[in-house]
Protein backbone atom coordinates (compact mmCIF):
# COMPACT_ATOMS: atom_id res chain seq x y z
CA UNK A 1 0.00 0.00 0.00
CA UNK A 2 1.12 3.57 -0.58
CA UNK A 3 1.47 5.98 2.33
CA UNK A 4 -1.58 7.84 1.10
CA UNK A 5 -3.68 4.66 1.07
CA UNK A 6 -2.52 3.73 4.59
CA UNK A 7 -3.27 7.20 5.91
CA UNK A 8 -6.66 7.39 4.22
CA UNK A 9 -7.77 4.14 5.91
CA UNK A 10 -6.16 5.19 9.18
CA UNK A 11 -8.04 8.47 9.21
CA UNK A 12 -11.28 6.73 8.32
CA UNK A 13 -11.14 3.75 10.69
CA UNK A 14 -8.67 4.28 13.55
CA UNK A 15 -9.28 6.25 16.70
CA UNK A 16 -5.85 7.10 18.13
CA UNK A 17 -5.34 7.35 21.90
CA UNK A 18 -5.22 10.80 23.50
CA UNK A 19 -5.91 12.47 20.14
CA UNK A 20 -8.96 13.78 18.33
CA UNK A 21 -10.43 11.54 15.64
CA UNK A 22 -9.19 13.98 12.99
CA UNK A 23 -5.49 13.37 13.21
CA UNK A 24 -2.44 13.06 10.97
CA UNK A 25 -0.41 10.01 11.90
CA UNK A 26 3.12 9.35 10.69
CA UNK A 27 3.14 6.22 8.49
CA UNK A 28 6.00 4.01 9.68
CA UNK A 29 7.62 1.62 7.23
CA UNK A 30 10.26 -0.16 9.33
CA UNK A 31 12.56 -0.06 12.31
CA UNK A 32 16.22 -0.93 12.59
CA UNK A 33 18.42 -0.62 15.66
CA UNK A 34 17.64 2.70 17.37
CA UNK A 35 16.08 4.16 14.20
CA UNK A 36 12.73 3.96 12.50
CA UNK A 37 11.84 5.05 8.98
CA UNK A 38 8.68 6.65 7.64
CA UNK A 39 7.03 5.81 4.35
CA UNK A 40 9.20 8.33 2.48
CA UNK A 41 12.37 6.69 3.80
CA UNK A 42 13.13 9.50 6.28
CA UNK A 43 15.04 8.26 9.33
CA UNK A 44 14.20 9.11 12.92
CA UNK A 45 16.33 8.43 15.99
CA UNK A 46 13.95 6.96 18.55
CA UNK A 47 14.87 9.29 21.43
CA UNK A 48 11.81 8.24 23.43
CA UNK A 49 11.85 4.51 22.63
CA UNK A 50 8.33 5.12 21.29
CA UNK A 51 6.44 5.41 24.60
CA UNK A 52 9.56 4.63 26.68
CA UNK A 53 9.06 0.96 25.95
CA UNK A 54 11.12 -0.03 22.89
CA UNK A 55 14.18 0.21 25.10
CA UNK A 56 16.41 -2.10 23.07
CA UNK A 57 15.43 -0.77 19.67
CA UNK A 58 13.97 -2.76 16.83
CA UNK A 59 16.51 -5.40 15.90
CA UNK A 60 17.25 -7.67 18.84
CA UNK A 61 17.53 -11.08 17.18
CA UNK A 62 17.41 -13.28 20.34
CA UNK A 63 14.06 -11.69 21.29
CA UNK A 64 12.65 -12.20 17.79
CA UNK A 65 13.95 -15.78 17.74
CA UNK A 66 12.38 -16.56 21.12
CA UNK A 67 9.01 -15.30 19.91
CA UNK A 68 9.26 -17.36 16.72
CA UNK A 69 10.27 -20.49 18.63
CA UNK A 70 7.33 -20.05 21.02
CA UNK A 71 4.99 -19.53 18.08
CA UNK A 72 6.09 -22.87 16.67
CA UNK A 73 5.16 -24.60 19.97
CA UNK A 74 1.97 -22.67 20.74
CA UNK A 75 1.05 -18.98 20.67
CA UNK A 76 -1.36 -19.10 23.57
CA UNK A 77 -2.75 -21.27 26.31
CA UNK A 78 -5.17 -20.28 29.08
CA UNK A 79 -3.60 -18.60 32.13
CA UNK A 80 -4.38 -21.56 34.37
CA UNK A 81 -1.77 -23.64 32.50
CA UNK A 82 1.95 -23.70 33.16
CA UNK A 83 4.66 -23.56 30.50
CA UNK A 84 8.39 -23.03 30.33
CA UNK A 85 8.59 -19.37 29.30
CA UNK A 86 6.11 -18.26 31.99
CA UNK A 87 7.88 -20.23 34.72
CA UNK A 88 11.31 -18.99 33.68
CA UNK A 89 10.23 -15.38 33.31
CA UNK A 90 8.50 -15.28 36.71
CA UNK A 91 11.60 -16.72 38.36
CA UNK A 92 13.84 -14.17 36.60
CA UNK A 93 11.58 -11.29 37.67
CA UNK A 94 11.54 -12.38 41.30
CA UNK A 95 15.33 -12.73 41.24
CA UNK A 96 15.74 -9.32 39.66
CA UNK A 97 13.55 -7.75 42.34
CA UNK A 98 15.55 -9.50 45.07
CA UNK A 99 14.79 -9.08 48.78
CA UNK A 100 11.54 -10.60 49.98
CA UNK A 101 9.80 -10.63 46.60
CA UNK A 102 8.10 -13.91 45.99
CA UNK A 103 5.57 -14.15 43.14
CA UNK A 104 4.44 -12.63 39.87
CA UNK A 105 1.02 -12.05 38.36
CA UNK A 106 1.08 -11.24 34.65
CA UNK A 107 -1.16 -8.77 32.84
CA UNK A 108 -1.15 -7.35 29.30
CA UNK A 109 0.32 -3.92 30.12
CA UNK A 110 0.79 -1.25 32.77
CA UNK A 111 -2.80 -0.08 33.30
CA UNK A 112 -4.15 -3.53 34.09
CA UNK A 113 -1.07 -4.25 36.21
CA UNK A 114 -2.01 -1.24 38.35
CA UNK A 115 -5.58 -2.57 38.49
CA UNK A 116 -4.19 -5.86 39.81
CA UNK A 117 -2.10 -4.02 42.41
CA UNK A 118 -5.14 -1.98 43.44
CA UNK A 119 -7.25 -5.10 43.82
CA UNK A 120 -4.55 -6.79 45.91
CA UNK A 121 -3.92 -3.73 48.10
CA UNK A 122 -7.57 -3.35 48.98
CA UNK A 123 -8.17 -7.07 49.48
CA UNK A 124 -5.05 -7.75 51.54
CA UNK A 125 -5.46 -4.74 53.86
CA UNK A 126 -9.27 -4.66 53.95
CA UNK A 127 -8.92 -0.87 53.47
CA UNK A 128 -10.22 1.27 50.60
CA UNK A 129 -8.38 4.57 50.27
CA UNK A 130 -5.48 4.96 47.86
CA UNK A 131 -2.91 7.74 47.99
CA UNK A 132 -0.93 8.74 44.92
CA UNK A 133 0.76 11.86 43.60
CA UNK A 134 -0.47 14.71 41.42
CA UNK A 135 2.29 14.45 38.85
CA UNK A 136 1.87 10.79 38.08
CA UNK A 137 0.49 8.52 35.41
CA UNK A 138 -0.52 4.97 36.23
CA UNK A 139 -2.81 4.11 33.32
CA UNK A 140 -6.16 4.87 31.77
CA UNK A 141 -8.52 2.14 32.94
CA UNK A 142 -10.98 3.11 35.66
CA UNK A 143 -8.81 2.19 38.65
CA UNK A 144 -5.40 3.04 37.20
CA UNK A 145 -6.82 6.25 35.72
CA UNK A 146 -8.08 7.32 39.11
CA UNK A 147 -4.73 6.53 40.70
CA UNK A 148 -3.09 8.76 38.07
CA UNK A 149 -2.58 12.36 39.11
CA UNK A 150 -2.04 14.17 35.80
CA UNK A 151 -4.93 15.83 33.95
CA UNK A 152 -5.68 12.65 32.01
CA UNK A 153 -7.53 11.50 35.12
CA UNK A 154 -10.21 14.20 34.79
CA UNK A 155 -12.13 12.33 32.09
CA UNK A 156 -12.20 9.22 34.28
CA UNK A 157 -12.94 10.75 37.65
CA UNK A 158 -16.26 9.38 38.54
CA UNK A 159 -18.22 9.94 41.73
CA UNK A 160 -18.56 6.15 42.03
CA UNK A 161 -14.81 5.62 42.04
CA UNK A 162 -14.07 7.30 45.32
CA UNK A 163 -11.26 6.91 47.79
CA UNK A 164 -8.51 8.06 45.42
CA UNK A 165 -6.54 10.81 47.16
CA UNK A 166 -3.61 12.84 45.90
CA UNK A 167 -0.50 14.31 47.54
CA UNK A 168 2.33 16.55 46.35
CA UNK A 169 5.40 15.26 44.54
CA UNK A 170 8.86 16.15 45.80
CA UNK A 171 9.24 18.44 42.82
CA UNK A 172 12.15 20.41 44.15
CA UNK A 173 12.68 22.60 41.06
CA UNK A 174 9.16 24.04 41.33
CA UNK A 175 8.15 23.55 44.96
CA UNK A 176 11.48 23.62 46.83
CA UNK A 177 11.43 21.89 50.23
CA UNK A 178 13.26 18.93 51.69
CA UNK A 179 12.49 15.24 51.84
CA UNK A 180 11.59 15.67 55.54
CA UNK A 181 9.12 18.46 54.78
CA UNK A 182 7.34 16.46 52.08
CA UNK A 183 7.13 13.46 54.38
CA UNK A 184 5.83 15.50 57.32
CA UNK A 185 3.11 16.95 55.08
CA UNK A 186 2.18 13.48 53.85
CA UNK A 187 2.02 12.12 57.40
CA UNK A 188 -0.33 14.93 58.36
CA UNK A 189 -2.51 14.07 55.37
CA UNK A 190 -2.49 10.38 56.30
CA UNK A 191 -3.69 11.24 59.81
CA UNK A 192 -6.44 13.54 58.52
CA UNK A 193 -7.63 10.82 56.10
CA UNK A 194 -7.49 8.15 58.80
CA UNK A 195 -4.40 5.97 58.63
CA UNK A 196 -6.43 2.82 59.14
CA UNK A 197 -8.54 3.65 56.05
CA UNK A 198 -5.59 3.76 53.65
CA UNK A 199 -4.74 0.60 51.74
CA UNK A 200 -1.75 1.76 49.72
CA UNK A 201 0.44 4.55 48.53
CA UNK A 202 1.22 4.28 44.79
CA UNK A 203 4.28 6.09 43.46
CA UNK A 204 6.44 6.15 40.40
CA UNK A 205 9.73 6.23 42.36
CA UNK A 206 11.12 8.35 39.52
CA UNK A 207 8.17 10.04 37.84
CA UNK A 208 8.12 9.29 34.12
CA UNK A 209 5.66 10.86 31.72
CA UNK A 210 5.19 13.94 33.90
CA UNK A 211 8.73 15.20 33.55
CA UNK A 212 11.20 12.77 35.17
CA UNK A 213 10.96 14.03 38.73
CA UNK A 214 13.72 12.49 40.82
CA UNK A 215 13.12 12.37 44.58
CA UNK A 216 15.69 13.84 46.97
CA UNK A 217 17.69 11.33 48.95
CA UNK A 218 15.81 10.26 52.05
CA UNK A 219 12.37 10.70 50.48
CA UNK A 220 11.72 7.11 49.43
CA UNK A 221 13.40 5.74 52.56
CA UNK A 222 11.10 8.01 54.61
CA UNK A 223 8.05 7.03 52.56
CA UNK A 224 8.82 3.36 53.18
CA UNK A 225 9.13 4.01 56.94
CA UNK A 226 5.91 6.02 57.00
CA UNK A 227 3.88 3.42 55.15
CA UNK A 228 5.23 0.66 57.41
CA UNK A 229 4.38 2.72 60.52
CA UNK A 230 0.71 2.86 59.51
CA UNK A 231 0.35 -0.60 57.94
CA UNK A 232 -0.08 0.94 54.48
CA UNK A 233 1.24 -0.96 51.46
CA UNK A 234 3.80 0.75 49.26
CA UNK A 235 3.34 0.12 45.54
CA UNK A 236 6.17 1.19 43.23
CA UNK A 237 5.04 1.66 39.65
CA UNK A 238 8.16 0.81 37.65
CA UNK A 239 6.34 0.59 34.34
CA UNK A 240 8.50 3.32 32.79
CA UNK A 241 11.48 3.49 35.15
CA UNK A 242 12.07 -0.26 35.36
CA UNK A 243 14.43 -2.64 33.59
CA UNK A 244 17.55 -0.55 33.47
CA UNK A 245 16.11 2.76 32.34
CA UNK A 246 17.79 4.42 35.36
CA UNK A 247 20.76 2.02 35.44
CA UNK A 248 19.17 -0.36 37.97
CA UNK A 249 16.68 -3.14 37.45
CA UNK A 250 14.09 -1.05 39.33
CA UNK A 251 14.50 2.63 40.13
CA UNK A 252 13.60 2.28 43.84
CA UNK A 253 16.80 0.24 44.21
CA UNK A 254 18.78 3.51 44.01
CA UNK A 255 17.50 4.30 47.50
CA UNK A 256 17.83 0.84 49.05
CA UNK A 257 14.14 0.37 49.82
CA UNK A 258 11.78 -2.50 49.17
CA UNK A 259 8.11 -1.83 48.36
CA UNK A 260 5.34 -4.39 48.88
CA UNK A 261 4.34 -4.52 45.22
CA UNK A 262 6.29 -3.70 42.06
CA UNK A 263 4.21 -2.85 38.99
CA UNK A 264 6.01 -3.50 35.70
CA UNK A 265 5.38 -3.48 31.92
CA UNK A 266 7.11 -1.77 28.96
CA UNK A 267 10.82 -2.75 29.35
CA UNK A 268 9.97 -6.32 30.35
CA UNK A 269 9.55 -7.10 26.64
CA UNK A 270 10.69 -3.78 25.12
CA UNK A 271 7.50 -3.67 23.09
CA UNK A 272 8.17 -6.82 21.07
CA UNK A 273 4.93 -8.21 22.55
CA UNK A 274 2.75 -6.42 25.15
CA UNK A 275 3.21 -7.61 28.74
CA UNK A 276 2.84 -6.24 32.26
CA UNK A 277 2.35 -7.49 35.76
CA UNK A 278 3.06 -7.21 39.45
CA UNK A 279 5.80 -8.71 41.59
CA UNK A 280 4.59 -9.15 45.15
CA UNK A 281 6.39 -9.59 48.45
CA UNK A 282 6.23 -12.78 50.50
CA UNK A 283 3.51 -11.41 52.80
CA UNK A 284 1.13 -10.80 49.88
CA UNK A 285 2.01 -14.09 48.19
CA UNK A 286 1.25 -15.85 51.49
CA UNK A 287 -2.06 -14.02 51.81
CA UNK A 288 -3.20 -15.64 48.57
CA UNK A 289 -1.68 -19.05 49.28
CA UNK A 290 -5.07 -20.44 50.34
CA UNK A 291 -7.30 -17.67 49.07
CA UNK A 292 -8.57 -16.95 45.57
CA UNK A 293 -7.13 -13.89 43.80
CA UNK A 294 -10.33 -12.39 42.42
CA UNK A 295 -8.86 -11.02 39.24
CA UNK A 296 -8.11 -12.43 35.82
CA UNK A 297 -7.41 -11.70 32.19
CA UNK A 298 -7.73 -14.05 29.23
CA UNK A 299 -4.26 -13.05 28.10
CA UNK A 300 -2.55 -13.05 31.51
CA UNK A 301 0.86 -14.60 30.86
CA UNK A 302 0.43 -14.78 27.07
CA UNK A 303 2.94 -17.30 25.73
CA UNK A 304 4.48 -15.04 23.06
CA UNK A 305 4.85 -12.25 25.61
CA UNK A 306 6.46 -14.51 28.21
CA UNK A 307 8.89 -15.85 25.61
CA UNK A 308 9.76 -12.27 24.62
CA UNK A 309 10.10 -11.31 28.30
CA UNK A 310 12.41 -14.18 29.20
CA UNK A 311 14.61 -13.39 26.17
CA UNK A 312 14.63 -9.67 26.98
CA UNK A 313 15.77 -10.21 30.58
CA UNK A 314 18.40 -12.63 29.33
CA UNK A 315 19.61 -10.02 26.85
CA UNK A 316 19.91 -7.38 29.60
CA UNK A 317 22.03 -9.80 31.59
CA UNK A 318 24.21 -11.11 28.76
CA UNK A 319 25.03 -7.62 27.48
CA UNK A 320 25.42 -5.92 30.90
CA UNK A 321 22.85 -3.39 29.77
CA UNK A 322 22.13 -1.84 33.19
CA UNK A 323 25.82 -1.10 33.84
CA UNK A 324 26.12 0.33 30.32
CA UNK A 325 23.17 2.62 31.01
CA UNK A 326 24.90 4.03 34.09
CA UNK A 327 27.99 4.73 32.01
CA UNK A 328 26.08 6.22 29.06
CA UNK A 329 23.96 8.24 31.48
CA UNK A 330 27.04 10.26 32.41
CA UNK A 331 27.33 11.47 28.83
CA UNK A 332 23.59 12.15 28.63
CA UNK A 333 23.82 14.22 31.84
CA UNK A 334 26.79 16.21 30.50
CA UNK A 335 24.99 16.91 27.20
CA UNK A 336 21.86 18.03 29.04
CA UNK A 337 23.85 20.34 31.33
CA UNK A 338 25.47 21.86 28.22
CA UNK A 339 22.01 22.59 26.78
CA UNK A 340 20.90 24.14 30.05
CA UNK A 341 23.97 26.38 30.21
CA UNK A 342 23.44 27.49 26.62
CA UNK A 343 19.69 27.97 26.26
CA UNK A 344 17.60 30.48 28.24
CA UNK A 345 14.43 28.48 27.42
CA UNK A 346 15.71 25.58 29.54
CA UNK A 347 14.68 25.95 33.17
CA UNK A 348 15.83 22.59 34.42
CA UNK A 349 17.28 19.31 33.22
CA UNK A 350 16.73 16.11 35.19
CA UNK A 351 18.37 12.79 34.53
CA UNK A 352 19.16 9.43 36.06
CA UNK A 353 20.72 6.77 33.85
CA UNK A 354 19.05 7.24 30.46
CA UNK A 355 15.84 8.65 31.94
CA UNK A 356 15.68 12.39 31.41
CA UNK A 357 13.62 15.50 30.73
CA UNK A 358 14.23 19.09 29.68
CA UNK A 359 11.85 21.49 31.38
CA UNK A 360 11.12 24.59 29.31
CA UNK A 361 10.35 27.99 30.78
CA UNK A 362 9.32 31.42 29.54
CA UNK A 363 11.49 33.06 32.10
CA UNK A 364 14.33 31.38 33.95
CA UNK A 365 14.19 33.71 36.94
CA UNK A 366 10.46 33.37 37.64
CA UNK A 367 10.41 29.75 36.33
CA UNK A 368 7.15 30.52 34.51
CA UNK A 369 6.48 27.34 32.49
CA UNK A 370 6.65 27.69 28.70
CA UNK A 371 3.01 26.55 28.58
CA UNK A 372 0.42 26.75 31.35
CA UNK A 373 -0.27 23.52 33.27
CA UNK A 374 -3.04 21.27 32.00
CA UNK A 375 -3.99 23.52 29.05
CA UNK A 376 -4.06 22.44 25.44
CA UNK A 377 -1.45 24.44 23.52
CA UNK A 378 0.25 24.58 20.14
CA UNK A 379 3.72 25.36 21.46
CA UNK A 380 4.80 21.95 22.68
CA UNK A 381 3.40 20.06 19.64
CA UNK A 382 5.32 22.55 17.45
CA UNK A 383 8.54 21.83 19.37
CA UNK A 384 8.06 18.08 18.93
CA UNK A 385 7.39 18.66 15.22
CA UNK A 386 10.57 20.76 14.89
CA UNK A 387 12.52 17.96 16.54
CA UNK A 388 10.90 15.37 14.35
CA UNK A 389 11.74 17.36 11.20
CA UNK A 390 15.36 17.02 12.31
CA UNK A 391 14.99 13.27 12.81
CA UNK A 392 14.72 13.45 16.64
CA UNK A 393 11.58 11.63 17.73
CA UNK A 394 10.24 12.12 21.22
CA UNK A 395 7.27 13.33 23.27
CA UNK A 396 6.55 14.92 26.61
CA UNK A 397 3.85 16.31 28.84
CA UNK A 398 3.21 19.88 29.93
CA UNK A 399 6.39 21.95 29.42
CA UNK A 400 8.77 18.98 29.35
CA UNK A 401 10.64 17.28 26.55
CA UNK A 402 11.17 13.71 27.72
CA UNK A 403 14.37 12.10 26.48
CA UNK A 404 14.56 8.36 27.06
CA UNK A 405 16.90 7.03 24.40
CA UNK A 406 17.42 3.35 23.63
CA UNK A 407 19.57 1.67 26.28
CA UNK A 408 21.93 0.58 23.51
CA UNK A 409 22.59 4.04 22.06
CA UNK A 410 26.25 4.80 21.35
CA UNK A 411 28.00 8.02 22.42
CA UNK A 412 28.19 9.13 18.78
CA UNK A 413 24.49 8.51 18.18
CA UNK A 414 23.65 10.44 21.36
CA UNK A 415 25.81 13.40 20.29
CA UNK A 416 24.24 13.42 16.81
CA UNK A 417 20.74 13.51 18.30
CA UNK A 418 21.69 16.34 20.63
CA UNK A 419 22.79 18.48 17.67
CA UNK A 420 19.12 18.44 16.57
CA UNK A 421 17.92 19.29 20.08
CA UNK A 422 20.39 22.16 20.25
CA UNK A 423 19.04 23.64 17.00
CA UNK A 424 15.43 23.46 18.17
CA UNK A 425 16.18 24.97 21.58
CA UNK A 426 17.93 27.87 19.81
CA UNK A 427 14.66 28.55 17.96
CA UNK A 428 12.68 28.52 21.21
CA UNK A 429 15.25 30.77 22.93
CA UNK A 430 14.10 33.62 20.66
CA UNK A 431 10.55 33.26 21.98
CA UNK A 432 11.32 33.46 25.72
CA UNK A 433 12.27 36.29 28.05
CA UNK A 434 15.73 34.90 28.83
C1 LIG B 1 4.37 4.71 35.12
C2 LIG B 1 3.32 4.15 34.23
N1 LIG B 1 2.38 3.33 34.74
C3 LIG B 1 1.43 2.79 33.98
C4 LIG B 1 1.33 3.07 32.63
C5 LIG B 1 0.24 2.46 31.80
O1 LIG B 1 0.77 1.44 31.04
P1 LIG B 1 -0.01 0.90 29.72
O2 LIG B 1 -0.06 2.05 28.77
O3 LIG B 1 0.84 -0.26 29.28
O4 LIG B 1 -1.36 0.46 30.15
C6 LIG B 1 2.29 3.91 32.05
C7 LIG B 1 2.22 4.21 30.61
O5 LIG B 1 2.89 5.08 30.09
C8 LIG B 1 3.29 4.47 32.86
O6 LIG B 1 4.22 5.29 32.36
Word description of this protein:
The chain is built from 14 helices and 15 strands. Helix 8 packs parallel to helix 9 and helix 12 runs parallel beside helix 14. The protein starts with a helix and ends in a 5-residue tail after the last helix. It folds into 2 domains: 167 residues, Aspartate Aminotransferase, domain 1, CATH 3.90.1150; 258 residues, Aspartate Aminotransferase, domain 2 (3-Layer(aba) Sandwich). Strand 5, helix 6 and strand 6 form a beta-alpha-beta unit. The strands form 3 sheets. Strands 4-10-9-8-7-5-6 form a 7-stranded mixed beta sheet, sandwiched between helices. Strands 1-2-3-14 form a 4-stranded mixed beta sheet. With 434 residues, the chain is an alpha/beta fold. The chain binds pyridoxal-5'-phosphate.
- Tally of alpha and pi helices: 14
CATH topology category name of the largest domain: Aspartate Aminotransferase, domain 2
Q: What is the CA–CA distance across the termini?
A: 48 Å
Main sheet: which strands, in order across? 4-10-9-8-7-5-6
Estimated structural class: alpha/beta
Helix content: 25-40%
* N-to-C SSE string, H for helix and E for strand: HEEEHHHEHEHEHHEHEEEHHHEEEHEEH
Number of domains: 2
Q: What are the segments in which pLDDT stays under 50 over at least 5 consecutive residues?
A: none
**Overall CATH class of the largest domain:** Alpha Beta
How much β-strand is present in the residues?
A: 15-25%
What is the CA-based Rg, rounded?
Answer: 21 Å
Number of strands: 15
CATH superfamily heading of the largest domain:
Type I PLP-dependent aspartate aminotransferase-like (Major domain)
Question: What is the CATH architecture annotation of the largest domain?
Answer: 3-Layer(aba) Sandwich
Q: Outline, from the CA principal axes?
A: globular
Mind summarizing the main beta sheet? Answer: 7 strands, mixed
Associated small molecules? pyridoxal-5'-phosphate
Give the overall average pLDDT. Answer: 97
Amino acid sequence: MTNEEILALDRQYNQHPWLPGETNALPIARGEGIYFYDGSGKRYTDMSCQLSCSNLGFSIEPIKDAIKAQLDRFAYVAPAHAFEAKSVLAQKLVQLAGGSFAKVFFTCGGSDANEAALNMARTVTGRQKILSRYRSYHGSTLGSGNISGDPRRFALENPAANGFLKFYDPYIYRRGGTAEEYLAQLEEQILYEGASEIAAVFVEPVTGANGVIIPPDGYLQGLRALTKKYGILLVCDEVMAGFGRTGKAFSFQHWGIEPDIIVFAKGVTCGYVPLGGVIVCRQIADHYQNRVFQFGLTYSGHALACAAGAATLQYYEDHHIFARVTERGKLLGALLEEQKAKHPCVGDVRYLGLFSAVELVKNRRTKEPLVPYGQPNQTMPRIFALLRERGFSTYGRENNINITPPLIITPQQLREAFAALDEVLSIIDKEVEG
